[in-house]
Amino acid sequence: MLLLEFVDGRPMLGVLAEGRLSRSERDDLLRRFAAAWSRRHRIALETGEPGFVQEHGTFQHVLVAGERLVTIDLEQLFRRAGNSLPLVSKEIAAYLRSLWKGVDAETYRRDLEALVDGYDTREILAAAVNEYHYNRGRLRRWMWALDRMRNARRGRGKYVALQRLEELLRERHPEAFSTARVRSRTSVDAASTRSRRAPASSG
Question: Helix, strand or coil for residue 194?
Answer without folding.
Answer: coil
